Amino acid sequence: QSILLHGQQAIWHLSNFIDKHVKVKYNPSGDFKSMHRHISKGSWTFSDQDHGWPASDCTAEALKCCLLFSMMPVEIVGEKTEPTRLYDAVDVLLSLQSKNGGLAAWEPQDPLNGWRYLP
């Protein structure tokens, strides 16, 4: 029974860490598009939310975890992620999708005219 209790505590801490400490809650301040930044609200980064640069693979994996946690009892995972925050993550992933259906790692692929033809 103590192994089960430790497992539940680990899941609770993981859920709390993923949702509260790593997820980016805001887009960069100011006119971030003129600074060649992409939206980041709703994404997850390689490190913490202060880092602020979204990573598509981190966002996708964390979104899967949050969806899994949403099916578990509150006693095990604690407070669940609000649906609007999950929608923000989906928005980030869709915004990173390339024309061919793939996902860019951290910003949309939009090569300057001519650059894509260089070897």
Automatic annotation (TrEMBL):
Q: Does the keyword Cytoplasm apply?
A: no
Q: SUPFAM superfamilies, alphabetically?
A: Terpenoid cyclases/Protein prenyltransferases
PANTHER family in alphabetical order: BETA-AMYRIN SYNTHASE-RELATED, TERPENE CYCLASE/MUTASE FAMILY MEMBER
* Gene3D superfamilies, alphabetized: 1.50.10.20
Keywords, sorted A to Z: Isomerase
Q: Which GO terms describe its cellular component?
A: lipid droplet
Q: Could you state one GO biological process linked to this protein?
A: triterpenoid biosynthetic process
Entry's Gene Ontology molecular function annotations? beta-amyrin synthase activity
Q: Which InterPro entries match?
A: Squalene_cyclase, Terpenoid_cyclase/PrenylTrfase
Please state what the protein is called: Uncharacterized protein
